[in-house]
Design a protein that fits this description.
With about 450 residues, the chain is α/β, with parallel strands linked by helices. It is about 45% helix and about 10% strand. The protein has 17 helices and ten strands.
Length: about 450
């Protein structure tokens, strides 16, 4: 195993080596055509959630970025939801409708979407304990790759696709009873968050079904500078009615600055915009919450959204936000006059940005859930909102908080660190007062 010091030196050398080299993204997204399957046969929000059994809970999980740290914490929450039983003996995890994930959290979400309950048998060993970072570095430093036109991100795509996701495509996620998996990235050109579902692929006249899962996860985790963007081809123009839908959304968003800005970015895809350059989803939303907010609001609000996805009998709307971000300065660079490594610098800048933006996102989502519950409530059915936030600040002592703050944003952690994170995810959920309140209400009903 390559040591952390050697890795830092190796990466610094690689940056100098490849920064002046031109590389090209491999285009794999197919163009829609008149004979293509209807959108409901593709991996779309409406088609996936409609295939889930009708329930009385509209249930969203949101997994943040943060490398393997985020993946392990999210897995701990999944594990606790699987072990939490409702009065009928069914796992609470069965009620989840949407898992929206960013960066490190995308590994857990995508794997669960593909493997379901098998995740609890092999995810820890097959994904979390793998030294993904060393594997990628070994591939990059291979002299045979130095002068290739294929960038280092393509190496990550190939590795993720083959070794983590068994070469599965988005069509493989479209299964009855499974939650919608929203993998989110950021378009480097216009700052728009881009989700890997058919609704977003309609903007670029493309079919998502054959898109490799590994490519979406690589896009969501492509930290700028460390990785090249993932490139998608914009196949506009086409006749898929997206302009009509966009105009309807614009009319609904009048007066909402947040949504108006999002739609202005999406509208650019209809112009002279031949390629998308997708990078780390944490740039536009490190919590994975804004993807859900935009899906609901741009559908015309919660009533229109729930009607479209056949969730008309909702009594509770539940969101569990799993935030694996650490406190700025947790890397310890302030304890020495040694110049920080490139990785430490990128991580510190990212932490500062993430913490500032996360606060605004949490407030937006908390206020929206209160508003949605009021809009959905009737005289005979008062819909109850439950916004459950999980993060390291909720740990019981300064010692525990400091321990987790020292775990790096990396794709290689020790077995002890991984087991600590899994246990923390379970404990944070189980002991959360808002979660306990939710379970009391569900069991009382």
């Amino acid at each position: 195993m390559i040591s952390t010091v050697i890795k830092s030196i190796t990466l610094s050398l690689l940056f100098m080596l490849v920064s002046g080299c031109t590389s090209y993204g491999v285009i794999t997204n197919a163009k829609q055509n008149s004979k293509a399957k209807p959108v409901n046969d593709n991996y779309a929000i409406k088609s996936v959630i409609q295939n889930k059994p009708q329930g009385k809970i509209a249930f969203v999980l949101a997994f943040s970025g943060g490398g393997t740290r985020a993946a392990a914490l999210a897995y701990g929450v999944l594990k606790e939801l699987e072990e939490t039983r409702l009065d009928d003996g069914q796992p609470l995890l069965n009620e989840v409708d949407i898992i929206s994930a960013v960066s490190g959290g995308a590994f857990t979400a995508a794997y669960y979407g593909l493997n379901g309950k098998k995740t609890f048998k092999n995810f820890r060993d097959k994904i979390l304990l793998q030294d993904i970072e060393s594997e990628l570095i070994s591939a990059v430093i291979n002299p045979l790759r130095w002068f290739s036109e294929t960038g280092r991100t393509q190496l990550a795509i190939d590795y993720y696709s083959k070794h983590l996701f068994a070469d599965k495509r988005f069509a493989d996620l479209n299964k009855p009873g499974s939650p919608l998996i929203l993998i989110n990235a950021s378009d480097l050109s216009n700052g728009v968050r881009f989700s890997f579902v058919q609704e977003y692929f309609d903007f670029i006249c493309s079919d998502i079904n054959k898109m490799p899962i590994g490519k979406a996860v690589a896009a969501s985790t492509a930290v700028p500078v460390l990785f090249n963007p993932v490139i998608l081809k914009n196949h506009q123009p086409c006749n898929n009615h997206i302009k009509t839908q966009l105009q309807a959304a614009k009319n609904f968003a009048i007066g909402n600055e947040e949504l108006t800005q999002v739609l202005a970015g999406l509208e650019q895809y209809g112009g002279d915009y031949p390629y998308l350059h997708l990078v780390d989803g944490g740039i536009t939303d490190n919590l994975g919450l804004r993807a859900v907010y935009e899906a609901i609001e741009l559908a015309g609000g919660p009533k229109a959204f729930l009607k479209a996805v056949n969730k008309n009998q909702t009594e509770h709307i539940v969101t569990i936000s799993v935030d694996a971000s650490t406190k700025s300065g947790g890397s310890g660079i302030n304890l020495s006059n040694k110049v920080p490594t490139t990785l430490q610098t990128v991580n510190a800048i990212t932490d500062i940005q993430i913490h500032r933006y996360n606060r605004a996102t949490n407030e937006l989502f908390k206020d929206s859930m209160r508003k949605w519950s009021e809009q959905l409530s009737t005289e005979n059915n008062q819909v109850k909102p439950h916004f459950i936030q999980l993060n390291f600040t909720q740990l019981e002592s300064d010692h525990h908080r400091q321990t987790f703050n020292q775990i790096p944003t990396s794709l290689e952690l020790t077995e002890d660190q991984i087991d600590l994170l899994i246990s923390a995810g379970q404990r944070l959920l189980r002991e959360n007062p808002n979660f306990q309140n939710l379970m009391q209400k569900l069991r009382a009903n």
